[in-house]
Amino acid sequence: MKVDALVAEIGSTTTSVYAFDKLNGSPIFLGQGLSETTPEDVESGFRNALRDLEGKLGDKISARETHAASSAAGGLKMTVHGLVHDMTVKAAQEAALGAGANLKLITASLLSDFDIKRLKALKPNIIMIAGGVDYGEAKTALANSETISSLKLNTPVVYAGNSAVRDEVREIFRKHGQEEFLFVTENVYPKIDSLNVEPARKIIHSVFEKHITEAPGMEKIRNFVSEKIIPTPGAVMKAALLLHKTLGDLVCVDVGGATTDVFSVSEESEAYGPLLSAPEPFAKRTVEGDLGVFVNKDNLIALLGRDEIQRKMGFNAQELEKLLSGYEKIPSPKQIPLTELLAGAALDAAMRRHAGRIINLYGASGRTKAAEGKDLTAVKHFIATGGALTRLPNGKNIIENFLKRKHPGLLLPGENTKVLIDRHYVMAPLGVLADKYPEAVTKLILKSLEEL
Asked: Is the predicted pLDDT of residue 75 greater than 70, yes or no?
């Protein structure tokens, strides 16, 4: 069987292979093959997933194009180093997270000796240097460039700071024999209260694809893939950006076994936009590394409280302990009610952290109201993708119940927001194809959303 595209999604625990056809006409999603990711050699998991797909379709598969998204080997590990945390560092952080990175170290001002030790120990996939508006402060970015290039880490470095000193930064890296690892892009914070994160996100995707050989066997996957490899969260962001053209302002949430990702693509509302104290990106991603229904279930249990879980499930302490002692990655029928409670807690906490809030400011004229963070009150569509919310029987109810609750002071979507479920779990693999086949990708995602 010849198909237009195969897309592999290589996660830390699960590897999937998706087949798509007729991408230049009436697109078809043919099926998905699954396998456990094999940490010792990710190619084996990929081959097993491909065999599973071929078994489901009853034929050997070849493809005109092959693509991949990956979060294996800890995903895209990045560090970000800027000038002022609430300005250039925040802008660089938004660029990195929106591209699908897992941020392991964020620093403001000059790198300290302790920062340098942490940087060496982390062994990031990519380092980003920012700092200074265009033609403004330059000493910090230059000093951090000197420090990082002198370490000779042979690690890709994205410079996204003051554009006036790009040539000096290049010369610093050339002096230390690190010029081949330097990637220069537009300033993420070119002027006060202005974010410019998309150019940096594109560079990060490009660098990730070029250097993704960290997971054992990943170099073989690179040989198999004829087109792109991008970070899985970056692929979801691409899909969300594309969907915005059809659906308007939206939020997309993936509650997983280890983390919970929230993506929002939205403009600020007329009501709260004028109150915002600092700019927020049009497309924003946050990742909560402590919220997951399997690896981090204990954190969610602590958030809910055991007494509350027992009350809602009608359990006593011994019954709850028995259920937890046999807790599985893929929930059994008996486990599902508990997993749904944990998924609801993860959703609630992650959305609270992602959303902006109303704050009080005090000055000579007394108290005034302002807003900070991402304004989600204009969001009209709430999409669940990946993990728990697409697979649990009451995933949609979990989201609707969250939206119905009152959240005083938080700039969250309202109860009239339409809830959609990515039933085929295709936002990530289709996000990889979004740049090349935008019309086909839009049609296929909309088919996957249960109410469209």
From this structure: no
